## 1
Amino acid sequence: MSAISFQQVEKTYGSGVRALDGVSFDVQPGEFFGLLGPNGAGKTSLISILAGLARATRGKVTVMGHDVVDDYAAARKSLGIVPQELVFDPFFSVRETLRIQSGYFGVRNNDAWIDELLASLGLADKANANMRQLSGGMKRRVLVAQALVHRPPVIVLDEPTAGVDVELRQTLWQFIARLNREGHTVLLTTHYLEEAEALCQRIAMLKQGRVVALERTSELLAGTATTMLRFKTDHTLPASLAARARVTGRFAQVSARDAGDVEAVLAQLREAGVPVEDLEIGRADLEDVFLNIMTESTQ
Amino acid sequence: MVLAGAQPLFRKEVFRFWKVSFQTVAAPVLTAVMYLLIFGHVLANRVQVYDNVGYTQFLIPGLVMMSVLQNAFANSSSSLIQSKITGNLVFLLVTPLSPAAWFLAYTGAAIVRGMAVGAGVMLVTAWFAPPGLSNVLWILTFGLLGAGMMGTLGLIAGLWAEKFDQLAAFQNFIIMPMTFLSGVFYSVHSLPPVWHVVSHLNPFFYMIDGFRHGFFGVSDVSPWISLAVVGTSFVAVSAIALALLRSGYKLRH
């Protein structure tokens, strides 16, 4: 049995926008799975359908074998969702918020686990603070605690580190990695591709509502251009290189298939009279893979 | 099963309004006292509605019921619209709570607030002119049914509205006129024939008339007719609210 299963999921909104176009993949129990894609790719629509916030136009979605529509109560008990938006109920304190959320899932006398969550997420001294008094990072931690308060076997993190500081990221990932080691399945969407590369065992990439890649992270990295030339320059790249380069200000990155191709790129730079600084030749990372796949799927 | 599911949400909804009870309970009590002082003073010697019942006495049950109705409506509608607009409704949408549990919790909490405000208005205004108690059972029946119906209407309005001004329009153009034109401040027998007939098409009239019967033992129509109208209306709006919740209307896209 898969922890999460999407089968031919389609979603067309009332406005006619087709957000998902036959998405199918499974996430296995205990897996740390990454769902990547540019804005508008359909990630949030897919997660919304999984959580019951939206309904699929067609297809089937299950959590721990429970259909999210026909058996929604069991499916939702198996799922903990950390939403993308920083939302909170201004009437309550952190502890009250967590007790209320426990109650919704039928979990009573949950203070021991709530205390553990507060301690693990660095919120112990904020337990009795009103939600309005917390900083953005603290509110984000409470969102994580709320998702975990009923000890779900499957955890979904929808861009949980968007706009949060390095310290919180470290605390959060240590805690989520611990939960994953203890057997929880984790589905992560993030724009920080280095996080996905470091944490996820498998990755699905979405583009325009379709799965354009679904592989183990290591295979994704191995299966694309393996070499990247990174350098700084104040000059415009020759047209032959500009088409395959990624330029951010003075920084340029050009992919190369092999050592011969590296030499060819350098030769083109020399011939065009483009001086470069801080030249590095390294392995392609997930960001390069992501951009390559997104570019290829457009062509 | 449904009751067990509704309990945590019901407790949270009661806790929510109780945390700001100065605004949600004390303020409406003060408003009702103002109505009593002003209308009671101005009209006390000009209007005689029932024999042996002074105008101030007549006014009190109407004010109590008006407060019950308006606050029951405000509780469920404001809670839902705030949660929708601030986005924290997501915490409820991802839970296993059934549509019936949502309905029971929101309506139940609205009844608690309506009755709490009603009891507060009763306690304070009765000090000015004790209205008498002819039949407590009618008072409780119409109080609970009225609060339940308005809590349910508040739930429907909260589901429908996407902005605060839409909810305000619902409140100002539907709920307020129907409440004020239901006989809170007068007996419909004193109205011209056309408005007398129109008043009988307003279900709010039956809530207030039946409620008042519990105090004085007299009313414009039989309390059994009022019970039938209010009971049927409550069942109808409850069916609509449950259908909207089951369909995920403006909740699940």
## 2
Amino acid sequence: MKRWLAALAAAMLCGCTAVAPYQRGYLARDDMAFDPSPGMSRALEKVYSAKEAASGGASVGGGGCGCN
Amino acid sequence: MTAALALPIAAIPARAVAAEANEMGFTVLGYKEKGLMKITEPVIWAHGTIQDVWEVEASAAVDIISGASPQLVTNVSGRPVNSISSASITDRRNTADAKVTRRFGDFALSVSRAISDENDYNSRAFGLGAEWSLNQRNTTLAAGYGKSNDRVGSRNDPTLHERRDTKEYLVGITQVVSPVAIVQSTVTRAEGRGWYNDPYKLTFTFFETGIPLLLPDTRPDHRDTLTWLTRYRRHFPEVRGTLQVDYRYYRDDWGIRAHTLEAAWEQAFGERWSVRPALRYYTQEAADFYSPVATNPPPAILSSDQRLGAWGGLSPSLRVTRRFERGIAIEGTLGYVHNARDLRFGGSGSPAFETLRAVYGIVGVRYPF
């Protein structure tokens, strides 16, 4: 597991193009965001996490519930 | 009543480039299972920047849950099946959270607080986060710590007052790959100690000889988890579309292993409209102590809750977004959930798993201010 993570980190950090600020127009698009709408993300988390054993991954400190 | 439901208090950047400085929104979820539960959840949220160095985010929501829930797994008919309670339950959960971030050039520190209250469960949590941007802000490293103190009760047993405490640790990296691609990867570890039994679940097992056993849901008093989430976004300017792929690996010390893969394509039509079809696949292995039938003598820990069984799920969805002047947007998502034992990756899942079918709709509005 640790070797996979180290390999992923190395792959992500090398071979990438350094993008200047004036080249980031496309990156500012809503569809390029990981979480463009907090309300939508929260609702989707509710839909799936109440029935699945797995949960979380993107944040910490969110607390728990009696839903599953 | 298992792992924490992580609210979207992101410890990692939600975007590679700052979006609207101040924005608020309102979202409503409607979710309906075939023959079982119905959930309605309105959410209000906002985030804003003060003097360019302070960021504040907050949200509040109400979960309104009604309907029937599988309460008992019994093999009285010869094979284990879920027995649905005839009494319809209604439950309401109020939640709120807030996060404050202070930026110091390429560094940022944040604190967050979350509360959640329902008549049989209360949660209080806080989080600390740090971000460091480097390489002309093409790379962002993130770290986070969270702690949750929960209190567990029961509608059926007023004397039940147990606690569950969870510590969480997160490390992550966000990397701009090119002017049209970005990737983010995070690893989260959680260590939970306390009460995990579900006070509403029972296992009722008949044997060829002797008296049947009625056992309460009994789970370990600890749960350590590891979650690895990787997300990729790639825009194709020539067709004005964006590929979005998310993968999550989950494992815990209950023996559960789970994979989640979602792929979506967001297609823009002009400047105002976009359509996003998506397909989500989920598969999980059963917990070590999961069984729809008890043995005699009974084991020390046993749960027949099928959410701890082996199964897989497919969920297609479609989102449509309409954008207006000044950054106002209305978005709607329709989705379908189909969970079944035969969808488990690699073969059949738990024999007693009963297929779940559900539909959901989410409507939201975003308003910059």
